[in-house]
Amino acid sequence: MEWFTASGYGLSRLVFQRGLAVLYLVAFASAALQFRALIGERGMLPVPRYLAYVPARRIPTLFRWHYSDRFFAGCAWGGALLAAAVAAGAADAVPLCAAMLMWLVLWGLYLSIVNVGQTWYAFGWESLLLETGFLAVFLGNARTDPPVLVLFLLRWLLFRVEFGAGLIKIRGDRCWRDLTCLYYHHETQPMPGPLSWFFHRLPRPLHRVETAANHVAQLVVPFGLFAPQPVASVAAGLVIVTQLWLVASGNFAWLNWITIVLAFAAVDGDAMADLFSVTGPSPAPSAPVWYEVLVVAVTVLVAALSWWPVRNLLSRGQRMNMSFNAYHLVNTYGAFGSVNRSRYEVVVEGTADTVLGPETEWREYDFKGKPGDPRRLPRQFAPWHLRLDWLMWFAGISPAYARDWFGPFVERLLENDRDTLRLLRHNPFPDAPPAHVRARLYLYRFTTWRALRTTGAWWHRELVREFLPPAALRRP
C-alpha cells in the first residue's frame, strides 16, 4: 500500500526512537538504583506485601510469578542494557520483527515495574513513557519507512498531553485565568532547579506574558500538529521550545524530555535534514503485509481506547494523569491544575541523645533534590527522577500523602539502613544510628536579591509546626 508509509519522516523516527531509548535507559537505571529502599523486600512499601492483596487482573507484571530483590534488579539492569543498545542503533541493525521484539521487551519490563511501584510510581510521566513505548513497538526500523498511522497516533498522544494540560489549567485554579499563577509556581513547584530562583524574580508583567504564552502553547498550538506540513513542523517546534523553557525552570523528571521526543515525530524529516545539513536515512523497501495488518489493528485498538480520554477531556470534571486500563494505554494527562501559594517543606532531623531536653543537639538530614539548607542552590536532576524527594513535597502539602510510607522511612533512618541512606545527600550519623528522629514543617520562601547578596542564602525558612514528634525504635 503506497499510502502506508511516509519516507520523508525517516530522520524524525530516528531522533524519536533514539531519544525514547535514552529515556528508557534513565527510567530503568533510576529504578535499579532506588527500588530496594522504596519497594524492595525490606523497602518502605514492599512489593511482596502489595502483590499479596492486589488481584492479578489489576496489575499485569512479571513479578506476579516471582519476586526477589535480585530478580527485580536483573529486570531493571537488563532493561537499561537493552535500552542502551537500542539508543546505540541496535534495533536498526536487525530484522523488523526482531526490532519490534526489542521495543516490546522494553515496554513489558517497564510495565512490570510501574505496576508494582505503588505510590512511588504514581506519576503521569510513567504512563506517558509506557504509552509512548507501546507505540514505538509499531514504528518500525530502518528496514521499512515509518508508517503513517503510527506517526498519526504519536501526534494524537502529543495532542492529549499538551491540550489536556492546557484544559486542566484553564478549568482549574483561577490564577491561570487571571495570568498570575507564575507569581508563585517557580517558588512552590515540587523540585526547583538552579535557575528557578531567577525565574521567580522576573518582573511580574513577564510572569503574565509567560502564563499567556503557556496557554497558547497548550490550547492552540496542539491543533497545528494535525495540519499539513510545514504547519505541523512549526507546531512541533513551538512545543519543543516551550518544553525547553520548562526544563530550564525546574525539575520534572523526564516529562518535558519525552514531550520533546514526541514532538520530533511530527517534524518533517527531510526539512529537518536540510535545516541541520545532515543526511537522513535512505528510503526503505515496502513494508511486509503482516506488518501492515498489525499496524492497522493497533490503530483500531487505540481509536477504540481513545473514547475514555476524549470523554474525560470534554468533561467539566476532567481528571489528569489517569489510566483507564492496567496496561497504561491511551491515558489522560495534565499538570498543575492548581498552584500552591506557599511552599512547605518537611525537615527531618536526628539526635544521638537518648534523653531529650532543651540542650539536645538535632542534626538535619540533607536530601539530594528537595530544598533543605537555605544556602544550598537547588540542583538540576531531570530527567533523573528522585522519587523520595518528590513525595516529600507532597508530604509538605498534607501528612495524608505520606501516611503509608513516612513511618517506615523514619524507622529505617533509626536503623541507619544503607539502602535508604543512599537516597539522601548526607547522613549526619555515619558511625552509629540516631537515638531519635523527628520531623518539622517549615515555610520556605525564595530570598530577595539583597538577601542573596548579603547572606548567600537562596531560601528563607520559618518554623511552622511539628510534623512528627521525636521517635525512637521500639526495644524488645
TrEMBL record:
<feature type="domain" description="Lipase maturation factor 1/2 N-terminal">
    <location>
        <begin position="121"/>
        <end position="271"/>
    </location>
</feature>
<keyword id="KW-0256">Endoplasmic reticulum</keyword>
<dbReference type="InterPro" id="IPR009613">
    <property type="entry name" value="LMF"/>
</dbReference>
<dbReference type="Pfam" id="PF06762">
    <property type="entry name" value="LMF1"/>
</dbReference>
<keyword id="KW-0472">Membrane</keyword>
<dbReference type="InterPro" id="IPR057433">
    <property type="entry name" value="LMF1/2_C"/>
</dbReference>
<dbReference type="GO" id="GO:0051604">
    <property type="term" value="P:protein maturation"/>
</dbReference>
<feature type="transmembrane region" description="Helical">
    <location>
        <begin position="67"/>
        <end position="87"/>
    </location>
</feature>
<comment type="similarity">
    <text>Belongs to the lipase maturation factor family.</text>
</comment>
<keyword id="KW-1133">Transmembrane helix</keyword>
<keyword id="KW-0812">Transmembrane</keyword>
<feature type="transmembrane region" description="Helical">
    <location>
        <begin position="244"/>
        <end position="267"/>
    </location>
</feature>
<dbReference type="Pfam" id="PF25179">
    <property type="entry name" value="LMF1_C"/>
</dbReference>
<dbReference type="InterPro" id="IPR057434">
    <property type="entry name" value="LMF1/2_N"/>
</dbReference>
<protein>
    <submittedName>
        <fullName>Lipase maturation factor family protein</fullName>
    </submittedName>
</protein>
<feature type="transmembrane region" description="Helical">
    <location>
        <begin position="148"/>
        <end position="168"/>
    </location>
</feature>
<feature type="domain" description="Lipase maturation factor 1/2 C-terminal">
    <location>
        <begin position="329"/>
        <end position="469"/>
    </location>
</feature>
<feature type="transmembrane region" description="Helical">
    <location>
        <begin position="287"/>
        <end position="310"/>
    </location>
</feature>
<feature type="transmembrane region" description="Helical">
    <location>
        <begin position="20"/>
        <end position="39"/>
    </location>
</feature>
